[in-house]
Amino acid sequence: MAREIERKFLVANLDWKQLAKKKTHMAQGYLNDIQQPGSKSSIRIRLEGDEATINIKSLEIGLSRDEYEYPVDVSDAEKMLKTLAVGPVIEKVRYLVDIEEHTWEIDEFLGDNDGLIVAEVELDSEDEALELPEWIGREVTNIVRYYNISLTQKPYTTWSEDEKNSFE
Question: Ranges for the CYTH domain (predicted)?
């Protein structure tokens, strides 16, 4: 079993963009409704450049959760996104930025989530020390509305100013 240990942050400014070593357009959708009673996982299809994956994550909010990811045929993934996705498909551009021994993934959301930029970093352990770059803002690891699956249900452009400014 794979375990993902990841922290999520908003960005304070765009200084990270000049450090990006790669950028990739992504589209992803979810094949199940996590609000169904008894739901224990999310099932996601993602197109990332010219590759596609299916991903299953346990429904845990916070630093770590179970995660399984497998390659799928791109044409199958495109069809699943068009015909099987529950809710809207999320589109974003992912930038990769190397800082010391970590690769930061910065997602600049498009469409219904335009204006939202989230930086994520995977860790080796939950108690790993992490020096934050100066362009990192508030941590949102434990705030459900910043998770991609939540953004399919309530996109960023529909958030009130209170929601955008609250970190509870």
Answer: 2-153
